[in-house]
Amino acid sequence: MSEHDISGKKVAFLLTDGVEQVELTQPWDAVKQAGGQPVLVSPKSGSIKGFNHTDPADDFPVDVSVSEAKADDYDALVLPGGVFNADQIRVDKDSQDFTRSFFSSQKPVAVICHGPWIMIDAGVVSGRKMTSYHTLATDLKNAGAEWVDQEVVVDAGLVSSRNPDDLPAFCSKLVEEVAEGKHSKQTV
Prior knowledge:
Elements: E1 10-14, E2 19-20, H1 21-33, E3 37-42, E4 47-52, E5 55-61, E6 64-65, E7 76-79, H2 83-89, H3 93-104, E8 109-112, H4 116-122, E9 129-130, H5 137-142, E10 146-147, E11 152-155, E12 158-161, H6 167-180
Parallel strand pairs: 1-3, 1-7, 2-4, 3-6, 7-8, 8-12, 9-10
Antiparallel strand pairs: 4-5, 11-12
């Protein structure tokens, strides 16, 4: 059980096919164990296909279409990685708007691995200190972020990590930030 209680808090997980499965399942379980309610939001209806690196894995049911989702209905946002997932999500306008709305609402956002691609296209990384999978370092720097190579980085409600090896620290900080609630410096 987490040291932080997030009972009654709803956490949106924005993803689609090709999500790195463990980057969905471990944070999802951490939210549930802390008393929160995870919700799978996607531009795709029905279900999405998780991946273990490049190998297809399990299917996960979509709870809400991103075109119908509103940040007002959630307390935080999680953006899992996976190259296939992140590359598709980043160009979806509804996903960009949904992501941006968490920043304008000053709500916690947690992102791992290739997940920051959506944040770049949503225009919310400039001036933020964060990490990611190492191949995104130049993308993030070019978008105005201060990229660092650390296990987990917290910047005013924004939690970021590099890869699945960082999941224990990522999950812990995710739950902590959700428990803290809104952050006045979490802005677009």
